[in-house]
Amino acid sequence: MSMGQLSLLGFMCGLLVLGGLALVWRGWHPAPEAPARRPSPLRMWTGRARMSMPEAWARRYRWIAMSAALATVGAWMLTGRPVHGLVAGAVVLGLPWIWHPAATTEHKVKRLEGLAEWLQQLVSVHEAGTSLEQAIRASAGRAPQAVRDDVRLLAARLRSGLSPEHAYLAFGYELGDGDSDNVVLLFLSHIRDRGEGLGYALSEMSAIISKRAHNLRTVDADLAKVRTQTRWVGIISLALAAVCIPAGKPFLTLTGQMVLLCCAGIFAGALVMLRVIASAAPTPRLLTPRKAGA
């Protein structure tokens, strides 16, 4: 083992020791609970990335990240070249998106169906003589699973004394799609005029969202063939790279490392482009992030 590989191994061992000490310290001195605030852009991006994966992969994303880190270190130590390690780690980290080259709309369809069902629950509670805010708080415990956490958070904000307008805007910001924005705008229009006909408006909105969910299922079925073709393009390309790169001595030079890094970037960009082609177009947002996070 070369001196560079020994140095890398020692560096990684030091990081593991420091990480373990930090975890022990955090266990003995838990951080105080922070007040609820708007998620950071990085957290929102990682959340959307997880949502784009099938549920089975999303539940194991921490293990995937750890495996990618190990692959990076292992390939770097075996070859003595950092780009080989980065490419190996990127392949492991991107495996869920290579095997599932475009996000299906299954998660969004379930959420839209849950949102439509929840609106029907609000209609039933509201027609019993309660206000919109009271109906939301009463329905939080039995909201459909797909939107239960968001509805409970909305109800908690209303109970805490936050103004309904800000609570509804935060609700729409966290759901993060144009269909949910329509629901938020309906809530906002009601709290500003408090007119009659809320039950009818909620029922109509529920029917519109149910139809949207049905249409998304149809579009998703049409895009299934494109996703299958994209998956095999990615798998065959990686198989060829796995055979050619280790046997290619020119890739061990500095110029070869730069070429390998450029090729990996082109491959990733091509997969992203194919993913966009094979994905259903999102519903345009009606609430801007700044307004929703006010």
Descriptive keywords:
single chain, 294 residues, mainly alpha, Receptor-associated Protein, 2 domains, 14 helices, elongated
Brief rundown of the structure:
This protein is mostly helical and 294 residues long. It has helices at 3-28, 41-51, 55-58, 61-79, 82-93, 95-99, 106-126, 132-139, 148-159, 164-175, 178-193, 198-247, 254-277, 289-292.
Description:
The structure is a single chain. By secondary structure, the protein is an all-alpha fold. It folds into 2 domains: 40-104 and 229-292, no CATH class; 107-216, Receptor-associated Protein. The chain has 14 helices and no strands. The protein has helices at residues 3-28, 41-51, 55-58, 61-79, 82-93, 95-99, 106-126, 132-139, 148-159, 164-175, 178-193, 198-247, 254-277, 289-292. Helix 7 packs antiparallel against helix 12 (198-247) and helix 9 (148-159) packs antiparallel against helix 10 (164-175). The model is unreliable at 30-36 (pLDDT under 50).
Helical/strand content category: mainly alpha
Q: Whole-Å distance between the termini? A: 56 Å
Range of strand content: under 5%
Quaternary state reads single chain
Q: Treating each run of at least 4 consecutive H or I residues as one helix, how many helices?
A: 14
By DSSP, the count of extended strands is 0
The total tally of domains equals 2
